Amino acid sequence: MTILTPAAPLLPRVDHDAARAAVADLLRALGRDCGEPELVRTPQRVAETLEALLAAPPVPTAVLPNPERVDDLVVVTGIRFSSLCIHHLLPFTGTARIGYLPGEHLLGLSDLARGLHAFARDLQLQERLTTQVADWLEHTLRPRGAGVVLEAEHLCMSLRDASTAGAVTRTVALRGALARSQALQDRFLR
Ligand code: ZN
Question: pTM of the full predicted structure?
Fold first, then answer.
């Protein structure tokens, strides 16, 4: 195993007490009585939940050698993921397709999902998440090509407007040979 570029995102410092107080302030600003029995522990719960959802595990950086010279597309599909929309603090959830065209190294298949999940534990834009995963693959693995497709439903859309319920946003990031070759793109996206 070779360790290449570390790509761990910087973890923000969390002030738990301030987060809890801020949730209580928000509830009061929304006209809610924080003394109501069902709401008494809500600030604590919301703060803990957000802290857990934003605690990113490390991004995988260990790659495997490729002695057999595997050179065809490696693609994992149907990777379920969820993240928090940076604009509304509401979840977006969906599935990912991640692939690469190997060069000198391979990546453990489950590490493809781990990388996505690490970047998803953040306040995110789906577009930025897609790009970050593609950049991570490029920098860590140095593949000949890489591709990431995310398809997700955003609750900030579907909860507010029933007509958009179930609408899926699709974002794509392609790198290297996958960005250049239509034939490879067709095989990756098929
Ligand atoms: Zn949103």
Answer: 0.91
* Residue ranges matching CATH 3.30.1130.10 in the chain: 60-189
User: What distance in Å separates the CA atoms of residue 140 and residue 138, rounded to the nearest whole number?
Assistant: 6
Domain formed by 60-189, architecture: 2-Layer Sandwich (3.30)
Residue corresponding to tokens 């577009």: 127
Distance, in Å, from the CA atom of 23 to the CA atom of 43, rounded to the nearest integer, reads: 5
Question: Tens digits of per-residue pLDDT, 124-145?
Answer: 999 999 999 999 999 999 999 9
Whether 86 and 93 have beta carbons less than 8 Å apart is answered as no
Output the CA 130–ligand 1 centroid distance in Å.
16
Distance CA 153, CA 131 (A): 18
pLDDT tens, residue by residue, 2-34: 444 444 456 678 899 999 999 999 999 999 999
- Most distant pair of Cα atoms in the chain: their distance: 65
Distance separating alpha carbons of residues 49 and 131, to the nearest angstrom: 26
How many whole angstroms from 88 Cα to the centroid of ligand 1? 4
Q: Which residues surround ligand 1, an ion (CB under 5 A)?
A: 85, 87-88, 156
